[in-house]
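Weekly modeling sync, notes
Attendees: AB, CL, MP (scribe)

Item 1: holo prediction request
CL wants a bound-state model with NAP before deciding which constructs to order. AB pointed out that an apo prediction alone won't tell us much about the pocket. Agreed to run with the ligand included and paste results into these notes for async review.

Input as submitted:
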Amino acid sequence: MSTALQGRSALVTGGNSGIGRAAAKALADLGAHVVISGRDAERGDQVVRDIRASGGRADFVAIDLRDEASARKLAARTRELAGHVDILVNNAGIYPFGPTELTTEQTFDEVFSLNVKVPYFLVAELAPEMVKRGEGSIINLTTMVAEFGQAGMGLYGASKAALVLLTKSWAAEYGPHGVRVNAVSPGPTRTEGTAGMGDDFDQLATTLPARRPGSAEEIAEAIIFLATDRASFVHGAILPVDGGRIAV
Ligand code: NAP
């Protein structure tokens, strides 16, 4: 086990599935004490068991993230478990696709609550403590469809475009105090969340220079880079890990 993150603590929202789980495992492999969150305790406990079986440190917090109160509650619980948070991975997200005219207000609010409001208040709660310690790394998960128009993906893309701008704003706000804020922008990636998408997902992957979807582990590599001191001069970057979609 490498020790690059020994003594550091990380919070990964949505760490019981897909990209979040791969990131949590990779962070733990580098020695970080990882707190993961999600609603499904069975999947959360399984990830914790896997990490502990590999000699790592991990805890799971079962929580439905939907507003400021739930974000602040998760931060408080993470402090109880891990002392403080050096690395925040704002990963939990939903991506319901479909025609604009069929989208309900409830779906609209759910997407913006989990994808924008929760990261916003987690940063509001945790970044000031990082500033006090003079160091920290925040990584937001955005998406390639925050950058261009894709039919049926406007609501999701708009929520992540907000997170792209917040990434840059927070880099400007907290960077001078030693806190690096960056984002990873994945292309289509095989996870539990995309498992049921069928043809649409495969079709999207064929538009990439890589001509295939990514794996959660490939996205986690970029998250790890941004989390560690190897990215010490990287602030406000939106790192595409999208099989080359950025290029075409
Ligand atoms: P996923 O497999 O669908 O997992 C989503 C995670 O979010 C789960 O851990 C889920 O846990 C959690 N979550 C969902 N609703 C929640 C809620 N109300 N409260 C708390 N936690 C909640 O996701 P993924 O595909 O790995 O994607 C991870 C991130 O990458 C997302 O932000 C997504 O937008 C972004 N991304 C993914 C892709 C892709 O192709 N997969 C591409 C670009 C960007 P519970 O269900 O237990 O609550």
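Recorded for review: Helices lie at 18-29, 41-53, 68-82, 105-133, 154-174, 199-206, 216-227.
Action items: CL to compare against the apo run; MP to circulate these notes.
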